[in-house]
Specification:
The complex is a heterodimer of chains A (87) and B (196).
Chain A lengths: L10 H19 L23 H14 L3 H17 L1
Chain B lengths: L1 E4 L8 H13 L4 E5 L5 H8 L5 E4 H7 L5 E5 L6 H10 L2 E6 L3 H15 L5 E5 L9 H11 L14 H8 L11 H16 L1
Parallel strand pairs in B: 1-4, 1-5, 2-3, 2-4, 5-6
The chains are: A mainly alpha (87), B alpha/beta (196).
C-alpha cells in the first residue's frame, strides 16, 4: 500500500461513512414522537365485524371527513349502546 | 451504524463474524461489507457463491459508503497501530472475536489494552466455542467478565456448517444442514445485541 500521506488505508472510508451518518442526523430527530398505534397497544384488541357495504362506505367517508378513526367512532357507539342495556 | 470486526490473532472467526453480522444487518437495512483484510476472504466468499449484501474493498467502499445504512468492516489480522486507531475511533462499535483458548485470549487482552487509550466502544465475541461438556467457552467468558470487559451474551459455537457455508459462498442460514439454523441463531442473537 502506497499510503505515504494518510495514516492508514481506512481513513477515506471512515470519513465517507461518517459524513453519511452526519447527513442523516437531522431527519432522525423528528422520527421519535410518533403517536402510539392501537395495533401495538396491549390495551386494544383487534376484531372483525361484518357491516353492509354501503354502511361501511358511509362510515369510512364520515370518519375521513371528521379526521377520526373508525375504531374510535365504533367504540363510542358501542359504549353508548352498552349503557342502554344496563338499565 | 459502522461496525468494525478486528482481532490481533488470525483464525478466530473474524471474516465469518463480519459476514454474518452483515447478513443480520442486511435484514434491517442496506448493508455494505468492507473487506479490509488483504487476504480478501470475504470477497472470495462472495465470489464463490452469493451473499445477500454488497461486498467491496476499502477503496471501492469510499464512494459506496453513502448508499448504505450499515457498514461492517473486516480487518486484517494484527492491524497496524494507525489502522486500528482510525477504525477504533471511526466506528460505532468494535467487535473483537476471540476463541476461548489461552493464546487468543492473551491477544484479545493485548488488543483491549491498546484500545484503552482510544475510548472505543468495543465488545468481545467468543467464537469457535467447543460443544459441552467442554467448558472452555464458559471459562473464557468468566475470565473476561471478571476482568471487567464487555462480552457478548451470545457466543458462536464451533460448528462444521460454518465451513460448509464458506465453501458454498453463502451465509450459514442459506446452507441446507440441520445445524444451519442453530449456527445462524448464534449470530442473529449477537446482531440483536448490537442493535439493542
Amino acid at each position: 500500500m502506497n499510503n505515504k500521506k494518510k495514516t492508514s488505508r481506512f481513513d477515506d472510508l471512515i470519513d465517507a461513512a461518517r459524513s453519511r451518518q452526519l447527513r442523516d442526523k437531522l431527519p432522525n430527530v423528528d422520527e421519535k414522537p410518533t403517536s402510539p398505534t392501537k395495533s401495538t397497544d396491549p390495551d386494544y384488541t383487534r376484531t372483525t365485524i361484518y357491516l353492509p357495504k354501503q354502511l361501511h362506505r358511509q362510515l369510512k367517508a364520515a370518519a375521513v371527513s371528521q379526521e377520526r378513526q373508525m375504531s374510535d367512532i365504533v367504540t363510542e357507539l358501542i359504549e353508548q349502546w352498552l349503557l342502554t342495556q344496563s338499565d | 451504524m459502522i461496525i468494525t470486526v478486528a482481532a490481533f490473532k488470525g483464525g478466530v472467526g473474524k471474516s465469518t463474524t463480519a459476514l454474518h453480522l452483515a447478513t443480520y444487518l442486511q435484514n434491517k437495512a442496506d448493508t455494505l461489507l468492507v473487506d479490509g483484510d488483504l487476504n480478501r476472504s470475504a470477497l472470495d466468499w462472495s465470489n464463490r457463491g452469493c451473499l445477500p449484501f454488497k461486498v467491496a474493498d476499502e477503496a471501492q467502499a469510499v464512494s459506496l459508503a453513502k448508499l448504505y445504512e450499515h457498514i461492517v468492516i473486516d480487518t486484517p489480522a494484527k492491524p497496524d497501530a494507525d489502522e486500528l486507531k482510525t477504525l477504533a475511533k471511526g466506528c460505532d462499535l468494535l467487535v473483537i472475536p476471540t476463541t476461548p483458548d489461552a493464546i487468543a485470549l492473551a491477544a484479545t487482552l493485548q488488543m483491549v489494552e491498546s484500545l484503552q487509550k482510544l475510548k472505543t466502544n468495543y465488545r468481545i465475541l467468543l467464537t469457535l466455542i467447543p460443544p459441552l461438556p467442554n467448558k472452555a467457552g464458559e471459562e473464557a467468558r468468566t475470565t473476561l467478565l471478571s476482568a471487567g470487559l464487555p462480552v457478548f451474551q451470545s457466543g458462536i459455537r464451533r460448528l462444521a456448517v460454518f465451513q460448509r457455508a464458506a465453501l458454498e459462498g453463502v451465509p450459514v442460514n442459506a446452507v441446507k444442514d440441520s445445524y444451519a439454523q442453530i449456527a445462524w441463531r448464534c449470530y442473529a442473537e449477537a446482531g440483536k445485541e448490537i442493535l439493542k
